[in-house]
Structures are given as structure tokens and as C-alpha cells.
């Protein structure tokens, strides 16, 4: 998608990866940016508004664990910016000790905000179509048993993106789904892994994981926006140590009639 002149919603925009994505999107000439997050970051907002004066940048507070809050946020976006072409679902937590919050934010949150956005975007409902990017993880491709709840939610996000990209759904909605799966990226989420494990016996391994090769938030953001510009409906892209790799899946099963 050519981003020039587009209206974009970014949920989780003030996070470590999110804040770099906001700059990258604005550098690609988007017209309007609606940032959704649980807490306003006035400093980031003011810096962006100063640096990208041609764009309209708004913040709407929401809590992705709350259905009503999600619905209200999308309603407010549309009241304020009329329509949007892109939604990036970028909220996430790594909190193995809190199963409910992990599932609520990482999986239910992505599903609920996608389903809240679709009626506004869907061509079969008078919308203009567009692109939804879901941020999964390498933990949504392969196993991280030391973060087993997180891994489970991210596998769900990857599967959801693949299902929503089905041709029949695309024919109805005209909305493409792209899933990005970052590897370890320098943000608060990826700090002190050993304190975030599912079971204490993984602490030693995760102390080592703290020193594993990682990419900057800036590089990750550049590649997220590159994939948004050039990716295909249903594409699953691993973004690890600065590289982009499209993932393909074998077919294991098909219904027989
Ligand atoms: N950092 C990594 O190594 C890494 C790797 C792979 C995938 N990811 C994924 O990338 C995304 C961004 O992660 P990050 O590393 O920038 O983390 P981060 O903690 O810096 O940012 C997470 C964002 O989600 C928001 N958020 C959390 N709970 C929320 C709630 N209840 N309601 C609304 N917003 C909420 C936070 O306010 C924050 O802006 C997440 O989906 C994460 O799982 C991160």
C-alpha cells in the first residue's frame, strides 16, 4: 500500500516498537495518525506534532482489555478523522504470572480491535477497505516454552491473521491482513527476561536469553512499515535481527467431501 495521504490507527503506539513505527509512518507521508494507548505520552505526542506539521496526529485513550473501551475508541476515531485505511494492532504484554491479562491484551485484544475496526473498513459495509497489520512474534511461529502463555497468545495472533486473510473474507471486506513476527527487539518488554518466566526453573536459561542478539526498535519499525507498504494479503513476515523473511506453511489437512 502506498502510505502517502493515508489515515492510520496505531494501537499501542507509545510502546518501544510503536513509537518508532509512528515516526516511520509519518515519514512515509501519512495524512492522519490516531494513536490508541492505555496512557498518553505527552512528550512523544508533542515531538511528533512538532516534527510532522503537515499531518494530523491525535491520541485516544483506551484499554484493550475492555470491550466497551475498544468500541468507544474506534467510534471516536471515526468521528474525528472520518475514515481510516490502516490499523496496526501493536499492544502486547509479557506477563507469564498474569494469564488473564496476557490473553486479554495479546489475543482477545487483537481479535476484538480487529472486529471493532472491520465494520468501518469493510467494502461490503460501505467502507473503503484497507490493511490490518497484527504484531505477533517469533513466539507466534516457534516455541518459547519459558514464556508458554505468551507463546500461546502469539500463535493465536498468527493463526487469526492467516484466517482473516482467506480469499472469501477478502472478497467481502476488501481488507488485507498482514502479520509481522519480530524477533527480540530492544524495548521494556524484552528486558529482564529471567524475571518473566512461566516457571522459575527457566530463570537460568533466560539470563542467557537477556544477552541474545537483538534488533533496535527503530530497525524493527522500519521493517514493519516496509512490509505494510509491500506485503501481500495473508503474508506472515518474520522480522529478526534486521532481516525480513516471509514464512510459508505446509498444508497438513484439508476437509474431504
Ligand atoms: N520487544 C520484543 O522483543 C518483541 C518481540 C516480538 C513481538 N513483540 C510485540 O510487539 C508489540 C509491541 O511490543 P514492545 O516490545 O514495543 O512492548 P512495549 O511494552 O514497549 O509496548 C507495548 C504497548 O502496549 C500497550 N498496552 C499494554 N497493555 C495495554 C492495554 N491494556 N490497553 C492498551 N494498550 C496497552 C502499552 O501501553 C505499550 O504502548 C507487542 O505485541 C509485543 O508482543 C515485541
TrEMBL record:
One of its GO terms (cellular component) is cytoplasm. PROSITE patterns: ADH_SHORT. Pfam families: adh_short. It is an enzyme of class 1 (oxidoreductase). GO terms for molecular function: alcohol dehydrogenase (NAD+) activity. It comes from the Eukaryota. InterPro entries: ADH_Ceratitis-type, NAD(P)-bd_dom_sf, Sc_DH/Rdtase_CS, SDR_fam. Its EC number is 1.1.1.1. Keywords: NAD, Oxidoreductase. Belongs to the short-chain dehydrogenases/reductases (SDR) family. Homodimer. This is alcohol dehydrogenase. It comes from Ceratitis capitata (Mediterranean fruit fly).
Amino acid at each position: 500500500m502506498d502510505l502517502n495521504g493515508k489515515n492510520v490507527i496505531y494501537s499501542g503506539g507509545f510502546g518501544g516498537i510503536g513509537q518508532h513505527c509512528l515516526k516511520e509512518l509519518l515519514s512515509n507521508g501519512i495524512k492522519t495518525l490516531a494513536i490508541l494507548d492505555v496512557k498518553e505520552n505527552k512528550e512523544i505526542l508533542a515531538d511528533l506534532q512538532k516534527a510532522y506539521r503537515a499531518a494530523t496526529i491525535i491520541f485516544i485513550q483506551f484499554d484493550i482489555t475492555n470491550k466497551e473501551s475498544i468500541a468507544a475508541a474506534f467510534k471516536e476515531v471515526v468521528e474525528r478523522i472520518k475514515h481510516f485505511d490502516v490499523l496496526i494492532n501493536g499492544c502486547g504484554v509479557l506477563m507469564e504470572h498474569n494469564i488473564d491479562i496476557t490473553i486479554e491484551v495479546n489475543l482477545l485484544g487483537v481479535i476484538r480491535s480487529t472486529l471493532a475496526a472491520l465494520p468501518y473498513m469493510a467494502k461490503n459495509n460501505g467502507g473503503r477497505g484497507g490493511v490490518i497489520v497484527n504484531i505477533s512474534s517469533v513466539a507466534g511461529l516457534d516455541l518459547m516454552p519459558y514464556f508458554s502463555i505468551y507463546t500461546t497468545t502469539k500463535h493465536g495472533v498468527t493463526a487469526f491473521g492467516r484466517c482473516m486473510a482467506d480469499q472469501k473474507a477478502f472478497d467481502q471486506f476488501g481488507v488485507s491482513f498482514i502479520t509481522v513476527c519480530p524477533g527480540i527487539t530492544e524495548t521494556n518488554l524484552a528486558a529482564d527476561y529471567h524475571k518473566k518466566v512461566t516457571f522459575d526453573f527457566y530463570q537460568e536459561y533466560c539470563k542467557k536469553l537477556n544477552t541474545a542478539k537483538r534488533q533496535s526498535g527503530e530497525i524493527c519499525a522500519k521493517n514493519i512499515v516496509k512490509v505494510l507498504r509491500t506485503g501481500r494479503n495473508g503474508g506472515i513476515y518474520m522480522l529478526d535481527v534486521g532481516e525480513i523473511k516471509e514464512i510459508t506453511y505446509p498444508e497438513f489437512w484439508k476437509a474431504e467431501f
